[in-house]
Design goal:
The protein is an alpha+beta fold. It has two domains: about 130 residues, SCP2 sterol-binding domain (Nonspecific Lipid-transfer Protein, Chain A), CATH 3.30.1050.10; about 90 residues, Jelly Rolls. It is built from six helices and 14 strands.
Length: about 240
């Protein structure tokens, strides 16, 4: 009963201001565009809204109650925000998706098409450095915190400009990238644990832990897990 009462009484603006105070050390990493951008955050179950202004170097420069006209709208439930604030859920994992038409616990809508690219970078910055509790940002890499994408369970680590990194858990008997998606940028898998096979282009080899596998541009790449597999995925020049 007490847990539910806390969630019902959660105040959006105050919670966001707590996140802002916690993110001071990382403020210059949250947003990198020259022109400020406006983000509207809405709790879908209570209707609470708040407006964030993001600026270069200062990160989240202001938080105001109410949803003003913005460039991007971010939506989630009060329960989701509570779990993130308590360190029980990972914001980036809850927002990540294989394709833009997927629905996830944290959703977003581009309100200003002319600034959609900058808004996407703002989402990445907020998920990495803002919506993470604590003054020194860190994440617990375990499957319970992971999201869902590409047939596996990832926790995004760093998405910054043309760099993308994520921790992945691939369940026994499943295939990472079963849909055989091909990307135009180079990638690599750093295998931390588990057994299986890795497919790169038209070759399949036995996978070994504590080894890195490089993936060229524009080729099929898959992990076929014979046991639970944990790995770090890297991509660069991913523009």
């Amino acid at each position: 009963m007490h847990h539910k009462l806390v969630i019902v009484l959660l105040d959006l603006v105050n919670t966001l201001r707590d996140f802002k105070n916690d993110s001071e050390l990382y403020a210059d990493l949250i947003f990198d565009a020259e022109k400020s951008i406006t983000i509207v955050v809405e709790l879908t179950d209570t209707g609470q809204t708040a407006t964030l202004i993001l600026e270069k170097e200062t990160g989240v420069s202001s938080i105001e109650k109410g949803g003003k006209k913005g460039d991007l709208k971010v939506t989630m439930t009060t329960q989701t925000l509570h779990d993130i604030a308590e360190g029980e859920a990972d914001a980036f994992a809850l927002a990540g998706r294989s394709s833009m038409d997927e629905k996830r616990p944290i959703d977003f809508e581009f309100l200003n098409p002319a600034r959609s690219a900058e808004a996407m970078e703002a989402i990445k910055g907020l998920a990495t450095y803002f919506f993470v509790p604590g003054r020194l940002k860190n994440k617990e890499l375990r499957v319970e915190q992971a999201g869902q994408a590409h047939g596996a369970r990832p926790i995004p680590l760093v998405y910054w400009n043309a760099l993308r990194t994520a921790w992945y858990h691939v369940d026994t008997g499943t295939v990472l990238n079963e849909e055989r998606e091909i990307d135009p940028w180079p990638q690599a898998f750093i295998v931390l644990d588990g057994k299986g096979k890795i497919v790169i282009d038209d070759e399949t080899i036995e996978m070994e832990k504590n080894r890195i596998y490089y993936v060229p541009r524009s080729v099929v790449h898959q992990i076929e897990a014979r046991t639970d597999v944990q790995l770090i995925w890297l991509a660069w020049d991913a523009k």
